[in-house]
Specification:
By secondary structure, the chain is an alpha/beta fold. 32% of the residues lie in helices and 13% in strands. α1 packs parallel to α12 and α5 (121-136) crosses α8 (174-183). The chain starts with 24 loop residues before the first strand and ends in a 10-residue tail after the last helix.
């Protein structure tokens, strides 16, 4: 058996439920992990089978229509798809966000939905922190200048002492709070915008004040109808010309075209993006855009984080199929 991070432990009484689960069918809609050996092992210990779909709507529905549970990452679970699941009791998402699942329809159909909200907190916060530091110290530009034969300290000015800067966090969930813990030893100031938080370790301000005040902004909000396009041309104009922006949350939070225009026009100095509304993103959109760092939606990744996500998502299915409450209920 495994603990919550995927490390081996002895089988505990809480998981001695294999007989009750005999015959259950679990379908993985879109396989994105190097292996699913861990899922197979956990489910087999409880006499449940695992089938893997190829991620296409046709194959997913062919395999999942009579499934008792689904494991999913990115596959869209909208009303039309959900209505064709004849006996599904739970959809367990490997990641944090659940914007690919129609939660209201799932609720109406009596399908439980779970996520794994705490599996990659350290990884995403570390990635955001690394991007912020690289942008503030202008490391990518410096590297490019030197590789091209230059030695242009003047071209990199101004560079500010980090302890004199203000970092603005949009959203104040687990990842943002971890990032704040990374920032504090620098001696920098931290301000936060989150309309759903009434008390925080760092000062809460309005979005306009945060954008106008912060030297570095990191986005950690969920993607909803209210937050889609949250950072657009109008909001970018409120930022300091020397400010930088990082988004490791959801691509739809930032209007990419507006951000590219802002970088080209010098509205802000730099940006780091790990997520995009369309993935893989079209690289032609960012060709020749100075001050932009991009990574391929990898902030969540470490070997340890993958094992934890796989273990926890599968465990939610085991619990629900045996009449127990899941650890991470969304619906």
């Amino acid at each position: 058996m495994y603990d919550t991070t995927g490390s081996m432990i002895e089988l505990s009484g809480a998981y001695e439920i294999g007989v009750a689960m005999a015959g259950y069918k679990v379908v993985l809609t879109d396989q994105v992990f190097p292996t699913v050996d861990l899922e197979r092992k956990l489910l087999s210990e409880h006499a449940a089978s695992l089938e893997i779909a190829d991620g296409t709507p046709e194959d997913v529905l062919a395999k999942a229509s009579d499934a008792d549970a689904l494991l999913t990452t990115y596959f869209p679970m909208q009303a039309e798809t959900l209505s064709q699941l004849k006996q599904c009791k739970i959809i367990a998402r490997y990641g944090i966000g659940v914007d690919n699942i129609d939660l209201e329809t799932a609720r109406q159909l009596g399908i439980r939905v779970t996520n794994v909200p705490d599996y990659s907190v350290h990884e995403v916060a570390s990635h955001a922190f690394a991007m912020l530091l690289a942008l503030l110290r202008r490391i990518p530009q410096a590297d490019e200048y030197v590789r091209n034969g230059g030695w242009p300290i003047a071209a990199l000015r101004p560079l500010r002492r980090l302890s004199e800067l203000t970092f603005g966090l949009i959203g104040y969930g687990r990842i943002a709070r971890q990032l704040a813990d990374f920032i504090r030893p620098l001696g920098a100031s931290i301000i936060v915008y989150d309309p759903y938080v009434t008390s925080a370790a760092d000062p809460l301000v309005g979005l306009d004040e945060l954008l106008a005040t912060a030297d570095a902004v990191s986005v950690h909000a969920p993607l909803t109808a209210d937050t889609k396009g949250l950072i657009n041309a109008e909001q970018l104009k409120k930022m300091k010309p020397e400010a930088v922006l990082v988004n490791t949350a959801r691509g739809g939070l930032v209007v990419l075209e507006d951000l590219i225009a802002a970088l080209k026009e010098g509205t802000i100095r730099g940006a780091g993006l790990d997520t995009f509304e369309q993935e893989p993103m079209n690289p032609s959109l960012i060709q020749g855009v100075s001050g932009l760092i991009v990574t391929p939606h990898m902030a969540y990744y470490s070997e340890e984080a993958l094992r934890e996500s796989q273990f926890k998502a599968t465990t939610q299915i085991i619990k629900v199929l045996n009449g127990q409450e899941p650890d991470y209920p969304i619906v």
